[in-house]
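Issue 218. Parser rejects a valid record. Input:
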Amino acid sequence: MKILVTGGAGFIGSHLVDRLIKQGHKVAVVDNLSTGSKKNLNPKAKFYRLSITSNKIEEVFKKENPKVVFHLAAQIDVRKSVADPVWDSNINIGGTLNILEKCKEYKVKKVLFASTGGAIYGDAPRKFIPTKESYPAQPLSPYGIAKLTGEHYLEYYYEVFGMRYVALRLSNVYGPRQNSKGEAGVVAIFNDMVMSGRKCFIYGTGRQTRDYLYVDDVVDAFVLAMTRSAIGSFNISTGIETTVNQIFKKITKALDSKAKPKYAPLRAGEQKRSCLSWSLARKKLGWKPKTKLDQGIKETCKWFLANN
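Output the parser choked on:
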């Protein structure tokens, strides 16, 4: 099958491209390399260095005529979205619309969209953790608003034009190839800090919780979502809360480091708890998380040691 992956040189996207090519699909990648890397690119994928906001996207659809599109390209820094919401919306809303319009025009059969879990739900009360898809979406950042808007547009294109879709609301994804220079993953950031000998800062008490999900399990979810008949938005998560302090300890143990964290004031707007229920994904997609946190951390640290 001919498949297009936006963001296919990025952290999650490159792992997805590898899997799709291994399965025998013909894959084209659109990525402007703003956060992705040429090193991540599978040599068997056809590469277009383009922004998802570019008018030249039409040329890619015309040449490749994909039947399925995985839309992972995005501006992923929540704090940058707060600082410049117009810029964020131009990429995450405008760019998504640009892709969806071409999907409609070139009769793409299905769109798979990388949405967000924690940023869509906000701080859910204790009784709603793990949080289900039925919990009201209450994004507290322009990034979360843009991702939820993308889901609404997908529903619109499905209802009006019959374009099938699945939006995966991802929890905190970690694993090999994650960019430690961004704000996208504390696992990658801690790895980089510990190995470079720099001060490791934890903001707040470190008792904030997140739902940490290994990248291979995310790829499993995307591939299953491509083949199943389900339509809609689904949490992809573990349903397990882990504190930032626990993550730091696991990483220093895996790296055999005696590094100690420095505590700094909690940053404004940061969620205190985030943990998502994956029961709907199990029911509709036949998906479940497979990788235990300790094993995932071990594999991630091994990759950072080899690529530092």
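Fixed in the parser; the record now loads. The two ends are 36 Å apart (CA to CA).
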